[in-house]
Design a protein that fits this description.
about 110 residues, alpha+beta, five-stranded antiparallel beta sheet, 2 helices
């Protein structure tokens, strides 16, 4: 039997929304993930991660909003399908993938300064 594990993360970043939007695609490329859907007008993305041994790929949805001209809020929602066989081995995989994305994006943003 298969079901999905979901994780959600809210992050506020002290950079303008355009600058973050530009670097998100670079972070995804660096992680070797795939952008499935992109809506620049709404600042939303759907990303497919790589799978791993005994683990299915995750789907991560990003939504960016402006807090003020120098701060952006990013909502990250990730879900990974699991089965009764993979559920123990896959525990925390969605959270780990979200954290990898945030760290990769943060490193790219630091290089811009």
């Amino acid at each position: 039997m298969a079901y999905t594990r979901e994780e959600t993360e809210h992050v506020e970043i002290d950079y303008p929304i355009e600058q973050i939007w530009e670097n998100i695609s670079k972070a995804i490329t660096q992680l070797e993930w795939i952008i499935q859907e992109s809506n620049k007008n709404m600042y939303q993305l759907t990303i497919k991660t790589k799978g791993a041994f005994m683990s299915y790929p995750s789907t991560i949805k990003l939504a960016l909003t402006t807090v003020n001209e120098k701060t952006t809020r990013m909502l990250i929602n990730g879900e990974t399908p699991v089965t009764t066989i993979t559920s123990v081995l896959d525990f925390g995989r969605t959270r780990e993938r979200i954290e990898r994305f945030i760290v990769t994006l943060a490193k790219l943003m630091e290089k811009k300064n």
